[in-house]
Amino acid sequence: MADPLDLVREFYRALNRHDIDAVVAFYHPDGVLERVFAGETQVHQGRERIAAWWAHELETRAGALAGGHRIDVRRIAGIETGWGWVRSDWVAGWRSAGDTTDRFAAGHSFFWVDGGLICRHRSVGQPIDGLAARDSSAVPDRAYPSRPVVGVGGVILDRDGRVVLVRRRHEPLAGQWSLPGGMLELGETLEAGTAREMLEETGLVVDLGPVIEVFDRILVDDRGAVRFHFVLVDYLCRPRAGALAGGTDVDEATLADPDDLSSYAVTEKVRAVVARAVALNRGDPW
């Protein structure tokens, strides 16, 4: 039986692909939708009725987020009221047919998943002006942390097989070339955090592929005290939209040939992660 959180993740992927058959297949034959579609408050029950409403939604509204996506999910979490209940937090963007105005909303959805199918789906959202900025005030300190800090990174490969490198502005690795990435925020999924960091540091909106590697990085000072302790998760990424430009925490971003990283003086670990990403990409080509 599919994990409810994983099932909801796959539901949103199908929705952003505009795959109506896959979207509808996630619902139970007697499933119920409440307030799922922008501007309407009706309750829809039964897979046939759900299919008709989703078909209308996808035909009359195009995604207005980067790369034509409809929804960017910020968080997917289980709810303690019982197994099978899932909450997602999201930002949505759409443009109605014949309308040149992009509209955005932020909100959350509840899913009751049972037997590998969505039995109930209810959404609550409010209009917003563009994409609301994140509050990063709760991000823990990197230096001398009280516990390991979870970091996320990405090997972004373009259609020509080149990899995105960034030159770090802050410690650790200040002034050195490395892979883009940063710290996971409280309540943020690994995938959402990776996509956010890629956008913030490189200006690129990315689609995430498989996990390349999970490893730790511990750095101590001259007294032997732990100055940095990261648990790092690196994903294979592909650019979906945007323009390459250095952003937060980096001085410069560039495209490099994976076979010619010596001129950038990257670490052996970066070389190894990039090599694994290139191998994975060959197994799932553009």
Explain the overall architecture.
- Residues about 130-140 have low confidence and may be disordered.
- The protein has two domains: about 5-130, Nuclear Transport Factor 2, Chain: A (Roll), CATH 3.10.450.50; about 150-285, Alpha-Beta Complex (Nucleoside Triphosphate Pyrophosphohydrolase), CATH 3.90.79.
- Helices cover about 20% and strands about 40% of the residues.
- The protein is elongated.
- It has five helices and 14 strands.
- With about 290 residues, the protein is an alpha+beta fold.
- Strands 1, 2, 3, 4, 5, 6 and 7 form a seven-stranded mixed beta sheet that branches. A four-stranded mixed beta sheet has the order 11-8-13-12, sandwiched between helices.
Quick structural overview:
The chain is built from 5 helices and 14 strands. The chain has helices at residues 4-16, 20-25, 47-60, 190-202, 268-283; strands spanning 27-34, 43-45, 61-63, 71-78, 85-96, 103-114, 117-128, 149-156, 163-168, 177-178, 181-183, 204-220, 226-242, 250-256.
Set out the fold topology.
Blueprint: H1 4-16, H2 20-25, E1 27-34, E2 43-45, H3 47-60, E3 61-63, E4 71-78, E5 85-96, E6 103-114, E7 117-128, E8 149-156, E9 163-168, E10 177-178, E11 181-183, H4 190-202, E12 204-220, E13 226-242, E14 250-256, H5 268-283
